[in-house]
């Protein structure tokens, strides 16, 4: 029986993963080693009971008494705190889902790779902040990373059976987010509620704002470069309002392979869960005649300065991705809190990268977890001072 763990089980990706695990037989098909959450004790305990998990862990230490009570008599061990999370992530498994949000997801993923696990990687921050470290860890331990971000799963699928050397370009599609039809002159006045009205995907608040600002796409451009090992100039972004093509791979004979599917993360999660086979998934099927038309337009860099910043980050590489992600997190927090405007987020990120470069080397290679987390802390501190 396949041994699995889910890090970030109670989040949006974690819930979809749980749904698929249950759909594919639950505890009859999987031996669940670890399920983890931040603080959501009740939901974590329910999942742990349903899957007979060996251990359930809350990252927040203060949750331990409540988790123990919720798991009483279940046979699942309750644990909490950073050391317990690391211990759980180090337990050998065949497959682990990395779905914690933020750089907190980096260490559990690395620990699973060190055990030789196949890591289904939803956590974007891992590749943006520490791409070379993730790939080197996987290679050193004969582990495998399977992308779960929908665009990267789409690219991975469009590359099946192909030689990466034949790839000319990779095209990421972007919905353009909630504000794509606003005039540029009004964007500076956009409020949180405006940025949250996402046209296609139903996601958490933070990723929805990142979608409107295209910081999400900027992260994905960096992820693409790191994961697939291609040159930054080979990664393109196109606005595709219908969000039905998730990504395209263009080959040097001019052919373009596109991946289409409904906007449901269970596609990409299910693909990573069943790879290298495909299993039936409980997702909507596309009715192309009803859809009628797929449309595209080039992104305007004046509207989306995050895309320009991604290019600068890729040119420096090293720890620049860690600084970029941390500064973006702070800028997003400030926008959500109403402290800065929508178009000020990119300015704050750019100013932070400049400041960081006067105190530390952005180009220093991201070779250890400590280097990456150190840069994350530095960039957060400077971004907070800047605003
Ligand atoms: P959510 O915020 O919905 O869930 C995050 C999960 O991580 C929850 O289980 C949460 O626990 C846990 N968590 C939060 N903070 C910590 C912490 N400090 N330490 C340990 N665990 C913590 O996020 P999503 O599921 O939306 O996203 C997860 C990752 O996947 C992100 O990196 C995101 O960018 C990426 N992603 C998400 C997509 C989506 O459609 N949602 C699409 C593509 C990528 P608790 O519930 O207790 O707070
Ligand atoms: Mg995505």
Task: Tag the structure with descriptive keywords.
Rna Polymerase Sigma Factor, Chain: A; 387 residues; binds magnesium ion; globular; 15% strand; binds NADPH dihydro-nicotinamide-adenine-dinucleotide phosphate; alpha/beta; 2 domains; seven-stranded parallel beta sheet; Rossmann fold
List the helices and strands and how they pair.
Layout: E1 2-7, H1 12-23, E2 30-37, H2 41-51, E3 55-58, H3 64-71, E4 77-80, H4 82-89, E5 95-98, H5 106-114, E6 118-121, H6 124-140, E7 144-147, H7 150-158, E8 167-174, H8 184-187, H9 192-195, H10 205-213, H11 215-228, E9 235-239, E10 245-251, E11 256-260, H12 266-274, H13 288-291, H14 305-316, H15 320-336, H16 344-359, H17 369-386
Parallel strand pairs: 1-2, 1-5, 2-3, 3-4, 5-6, 6-7, 8-9
Antiparallel strand pairs: 8-10, 10-11
The structure holds NADPH dihydro-nicotinamide-adenine-dinucleotide phosphate (NDP) and magnesium ion (MG).
Describe this structure in words.
Helix content is 47%, strand content 15%. By secondary structure, it is an alpha/beta fold. The protein has 2 domains: 2-147, NAD(P)-binding Rossmann-like Domain (Rossmann fold, 3-Layer(aba) Sandwich), CATH 3.40.50.720; 153-386, Orthogonal Bundle (Rna Polymerase Sigma Factor, Chain: A). It has a 7-stranded parallel beta sheet with strand order 4-3-2-1-5-6-7, with helices on both faces. A 4-stranded mixed beta sheet has the order 9-8-10-11, covered by helices on one side. Helix 6 runs antiparallel to helix 15. The termini are far apart. Bound molecules: NADPH dihydro-nicotinamide-adenine-dinucleotide phosphate and magnesium ion.
């Amino acid at each position: 029986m396949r041994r699995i763990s889910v890090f970030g089980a109670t989040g949006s990706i974690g819930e979809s993963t749980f749904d698929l695990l249950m759909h594919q037989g639950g505890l009859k098909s999987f031996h669940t080693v670890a399920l983890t959450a931040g603080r959501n004790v009740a939901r974590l305990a329910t999942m742990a009971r349903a899957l007979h998990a060996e251990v359930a862990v809350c990252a927040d230490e203060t949750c331990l008494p409540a988790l123990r009570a919720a798991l009483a008599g279940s046979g699942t061990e309750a644990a909490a705190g950073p050391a317990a999370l690391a211990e759980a992530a180090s337990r050998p498994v065949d497959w682990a889902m990395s779905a914690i949000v933020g750089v907190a997801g980096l260490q559990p993923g690395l620990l699973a790779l060190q055990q030789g696990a196949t890591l289904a990687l939803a956590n974007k921050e891992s590749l943006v902040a520490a791409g070379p470290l993730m790939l080197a860890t996987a290679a050193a331990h004969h582990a495998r990373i399977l992308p779960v971000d929908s665009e990267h799963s789409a690219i991975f699928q469009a590359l099946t059976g192909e030689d990466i050397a034949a790839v000319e370009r990779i095209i990421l599609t972007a919905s353009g987010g909630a504000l794509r039809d606003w005039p540029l002159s009004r964007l500076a006045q956009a409020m949180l509620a405006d940025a949250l009205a996402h046209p296609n995907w139903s996601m958490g608040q933070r990723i929805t704002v990142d979608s409107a600002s295209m910081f999400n796409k900027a992260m994905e451009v960096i992820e693409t470069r790191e994961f697939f090992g291609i040159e930054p100039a080979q990664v393109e972004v196109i606005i595709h309002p219908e969000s039905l093509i998730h990504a395209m791979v263009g080959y040097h004979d001019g052919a373009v392979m596109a991946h289409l599917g409904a906007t449901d993360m269970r596609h990409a999660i299910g693909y990573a869960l069943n790879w290298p086979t495909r299993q039936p998934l409980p997702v909507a099927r596309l009715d192309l005649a009803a859809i009628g038309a797929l449309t595209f337009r080039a992104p305007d860099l004046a509207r989306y300065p995050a895309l320009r910043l991604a290019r600068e980050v890729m040119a420096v590489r090293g720890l620049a991705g860690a600084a970029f992600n941390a500064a973006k997190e702070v800028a997003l927090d400030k926008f959500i809190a109403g402290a800065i405007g929508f178009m000020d987020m990119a300015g704050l990120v750019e100013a932070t990268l400049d400041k960081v470069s006067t105190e530390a080397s952005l180009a220093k290679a991201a070779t250890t977890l400590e280097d990456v987390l150190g840069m994350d802390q530095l960039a957060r501190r400077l971004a907070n001072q800047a605003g």
